[in-house]
Amino acid sequence: MIFLDAAATTPVRREALEAMWPYLSGEFGNPSSHHSLGEAAAAALAEARSGVAKVLNCRAGEVTFTSGGTEADNLAVKGIALARQASDPSLNRVVISAIEHPAVEESARYLERVHGFAVDVLPVDGEGLVSIDDLRATIRPQTALVSIMYANNEIGTVQPIAALAAVSREHGVPFHTDAVQAAGWLPLDVKALGVDALSMSGHKLGAPKGSGVLFTKGRLRMEPLIHGGGQERARRSGTENVGGAVALSTALRLSHAEQPEQAARVSALRNQFIDQILATVPDALLTGHRSQRLPSVASFCFPGTSGESVLLELERLGVVCSSGSACAAGSDAPSPVLVAVGIAPETAQTAVRFSFTATVTNAELEQAAVAVETAVGRVRNLAAPQPG
């Protein structure tokens, strides 16, 4: 099997498993307990927090552990916007892009539906990029938060986050970015990016599912979504997942150290894969920006097919990939991301996304490209009218 669905999840790194194992076995203490087991767990949690902070170039106290990227996005969007509104009731608008992950988009809609916020949606161009001028024109005195994702999970387009965050900063508006797909592939220095909040998910980095991080800058206030014992500096109550935090910190540290070399290597392989698909599959349409994209994502539409049929045929040929966001699996509707970049709904339903781990090889991608040519050809032949 050739696994090309790393944007959905990645295999757990052995180093992450080994790092977390003691806290799932002998060192099982609750970090809030005042005895030796609890103190050992608290020390491990503090070390994990410091490890994440080092990669992000922030203070350890600015790192909140969550259950994953979805919770981190919800906490950022709802928590920051509601806290800002509590301090100034006139702050009742949020700005997002048209291609946000549902965790951000649905959080903004919740604020609209339940708390009376207005949601300003920034359009994107045909390659999935947000216009800096559009953001500047959209921010108003009533804007409580801007949230624009670092890199899109379906088409791979990378936004100019530092420039967008600078516009938000000019207006005194906090800026959040969903960096779930960017982590491990792109720089995460929050000071260089200029962001006030940043979300990550462990299982996209080689840590187990169920671990995530939210960075929030300095004294930026957030209304907590989960109330209880006041853990995580009262930002996120609940007994901490010590093993998950340790694994996430380990995986993040390793991927950060490998990032420059692996990003360059995989980018080159991605470009070869894209070129091979475009050269061998008639009418294949690359989605997203040709060069300003994640090293790990190549996504296409194959007109004249069904994306789901191509996926089934590819799996028979030993290639595992997806039709888009795993969080939208089972939906019959065309991808809102693809529609937002101007692709017709019927074409959007032919989409297939290939996303790579850091260990993908040239041989695997060459074999996968041949399989794509075969799979698309078979599906098109089956769909073509039969003579007689």
**What's the pLDDT, averaged over the residues?**
95
Largest sheet: 7 strands, mixed
- Globular, elongated, flat, extended or rod-shaped: what is the shape? globular
State the low-pLDDT regions, or none. Answer: none
Termini separation: 39 Å
CA-atom Rg in angstroms: 22 Å
| Number of helical elements | 12
Percentage of residues in DSSP E strands: 5-15%
Order of helices and strands: EHHEHEHEHEHEHEEHEEHEHHEH
Q: Name the helicity range.
A: 40-55%
Q: Biggest sheet: strands side by side, in what order?
A: 2-8-7-6-5-3-4
The computed structural class is: alpha/beta
The total beta strand count reads 12
Task: Provide key terms for this protein.
388 residues, alpha/beta, 7-stranded mixed beta sheet, 3-stranded antiparallel beta sheet, 42% helix
Give the SSE map.
Layout: E1 2-3, H1 14-20, H2 36-56, E2 63-66, H3 69-87, E3 93-97, H4 102-115, E4 118-122, H5 132-138, E5 143-147, H6 161-170, E6 175-178, H7 190-193, E7 197-201, E8 212-216, H8 242-280, E9 285-287, E10 297-301, H9 307-316, E11 319-320, H10 336-340, H11 345-348, E12 351-355, H12 362-383
Parallel strand pairs: 1-11, 3-4, 3-5, 5-6, 6-7
Antiparallel strand pairs: 2-8, 7-8, 9-10, 10-12
Helix pairs in contact: 1-8, 2-8, 3-4, 8-12, 9-12
3D structure, described in words:
42% of the residues lie in helices and 13% in strands. The protein has twelve helices and twelve strands. α8 (242-280) packs across α12. The chain is of the alpha/beta class. The protein has a seven-stranded mixed beta sheet, sandwiched between helices.
